[in-house]
Amino acid sequence: MVLAAAAAVALGIVFTSSSEDADTEIRIARPKPSSTIEGSSSLSPTPTAEPAAPPILEAVIHGFRFPIDGACLPSREDFMPNAPREYRWGIHEGIDFYDGYNCVSIPRGTPVLAAKTGVVIRADHDYQDITAEEMDALLTLAQQQGYTDPAALDRLRGQQVWLDHGNGIVTRYAHLLGVEAAIEEGVVVEAGQVLGYVGNSGTPEGISDPNLENHLHFEIRVGPGYLGQGLSPAQTRRLCEKAFSP
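RE: above sequence
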């Protein structure tokens, strides 16, 4: 068992299956608020402090660099993990890097960099663009199911590169315009090496207008789940800040 999963068990972190994806949800027991004094309806429960994010994640997930040179975390919470994605009846599983929201200019074609040294386990050189008919079918199916299934979600990420960093930690780089020729499965890449370029593949706008919705969708996967899964916005942002710290 990988380090993160073993330590998670020791800390009482529970993994459960998600309805949207076969990925695992990291769930942490939250303390119950104090009850009211019996017979007094005017007293409210004493609020309790929100628990900190799992210590094991803070210990293991760090030392990443931003996949866009000079970037920072997005200023908007809807660009962070766990934000709803109503157009596909799903939940966002990563961090979006958009022009104007991440401290630097990120136009279409901006180089996407490896966030950490790792082994390439996926490189979509032969990616085929989604057609309007396929997009309509994917979104219709998601509406009927009430969630985005794993196969549909993978298509909606567009052209991708995945890196394995060991200990069950994988990074995903999605919606790419293209992948660097040297990025092949099995190749070891160094932190900061160019993997591909910012685009909008896999998005509805990618079909209608190449100038809309260009951004990098970046995920840190922890075992079978994603970083921040099941946590509050504050906890998730803290984990992401820790991930990009030394």
